[in-house]
Amino acid sequence: MQAKDTLINLDDSSFIKDSKVKLINTGNDIQLRLAQWPPSTGTEPKGTVLIVQGYSEFIEKYEEVVSEFRDKGYSVVAYDSRGQGLSTRFISDFHKGYVDSYSAMVNDLQQVYDEVVSTLPRPHILLAHSMGGNVSMRFLQEKKPVFDHAFLSAPMLAWNEPVGAVSMLASALVFLGRGEKYAIGAGPPNSDIKAAISERLSSDKNRVNKVASYCAKEARLWMGGPTWQWVKEASKSILVAVTKANCVKVTTSTTILSPLDDVVISGANHKTLASYNKNIECIEFTGAKHEILIEEDIHREKFWNTFHSVFPK
To answer: DSSP secondary-structure letter at 130?
Structure first.
């Protein structure tokens, strides 16, 4: 399914009017939808923030976060990961989570940095969530250090199930030709979008309603569960990212934001990874669900205090 170089318009806000949207060609007919914004302050940018999204997310979900960074004087860049949002999809059923390779997503991040972020003012700040946190941790371990700081929100570095066993099962089922089938416990998206988001991702009704409005307007934005192919690649990537030998390679100052009421992923490895490397710190968010950046104000205020402890107002 082809990518689209447009943002979904709900209310003609500056989020839409001030954006520049384009497609990044990554090769093999895979295109990433990318958007960028200047500061809303009318001043020279104080720096540039790159947002790397989690599973099933899309650029518009970060409307509030983008607007806040712009109001603080930053340029912002965000893109839809391959296989979701309005980037190229791999299979015809767009409700299914499917990706060819997490290593390819690490390379996508490098390409977005080289083609877009590198041309914009420093400091260069990486803000990644969940799946994007996994991809970003791999990037920080494997690629040349280019970011001045990284904030990883609920990075997907463990599951509630044994990752090694999941990896073996998923690999076997993909080998048997079931890669495009939903994984155990996964299925088509819940028709009650608001209920599904509230149950697992956020306690803030207004922010949940906004996300649901985007999904209701563009069907491709509301995804169901992952396929066995996605699980295979995700579990392989987790096993790579959490080894001590790889964690010690991180030279970029990195903050892990760990929500303690997360039922989507396990935060068990967050503090462990921080213990491996003095460049990594872990800050826990008591009472926060998986999506800290669309959670209630008390959790978002803690995020902004954490951000400003590194980059003062």
So the answer is: T
Strand partners, 24: 32
State the pLDDT confidence band at 1, using cuts at 50, 70 and 90.
confident
Task: Enumerate domains of the chain plus CATH numbers.
Answer: 14-310 (3.40.50.1820)
Q: Could you tell me if residue 282 is left (phi over 0), alpha (psi between -120 and 50 degrees) or otherwise beta?
A: beta
Alpha helices in 23-162 (DSSP H): 63-71, 102-115, 131-142
SS3 153: strand
Residue 299 near residue 288 (C-beta atoms within 8 A): yes
- Calculate the CA 179 to chain-centre distance: 23
Provide the residue count of the chain: 313
| pTM (global) more than 0.70 | yes
Place of tokens 């995700």: 234
As a whole number, mean pLDDT of residues 155-170 equals 95
Q: Measuring CA to CA, which residue among 20, 29, 21 is closest to residue 2? A: 29
Alpha carbons 293 and 64: distance in angstroms, whole number: 9
What would the mean pLDDT of 37-51 be, rounded to a whole number? 94
